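Design review, sub-item: ligand-bound model
Attendees: FS, YL, KQ
YL presented the inputs for the zinc ion complex:
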Amino acid sequence: MKTLTKELQNQISPDLALKLLKDGNLRFVNNLKVNRNLLQQVNETSESQHPFAVVISCMDSRTSAELIFDQGLGDVFSIRIAGNVINEDILGSAEFGCKVVGAKIVVVLGHTSCGAIKGAVNDVDLGHLHFITHKIQRCIPQLKKKYPSASESDLCAHVTKENIALGVSDLKSRSSILEEMSYKGEIKIVGALYDITSGVVEFIDT
Ligand SMILES: [Zn+2]
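KQ shared the predicted structure:
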């Protein structure tokens, strides 16, 4: 597994970028992770970086993008925030990753048993948390209507998936840069769900 150079990054299409992430997760799940010389990668990335992916994932300690996709130094822009919600700073970071540095895919990665989702479902109000929960709560009324007899854990599962779809849609509707790059086929913007009990990432058709 080579450290990415500008030339190698240029050879990666958005479809290949998706495949690289899927292959990496398959290695992770099968405990076949690539044996990287990280110190060598420190040297090789000391002048510049050319990551192929932007992963927007939760801050949850079990969902580190580099680990679950079996990637090394210089491969992934890892943007982490509770509940993998989208705000202006996240939009700017994703735009930088794709438009300036040349990443080919943006993944909004939610996960099962997410504390931020549970907090949103239970309307937890603490300090600044409401900035996050309010973003997630946008989808709850419609889901409660659609699944009136859902248990709390079932509702959380529905909200988790809908929150991923909202993230993908926010990236496209709120960033003309990302929307245009996606329209031109220069990048892919996709949603995915990480199962904390199995390690499996399921890419979701949003
Ligand atoms: Zn979480």
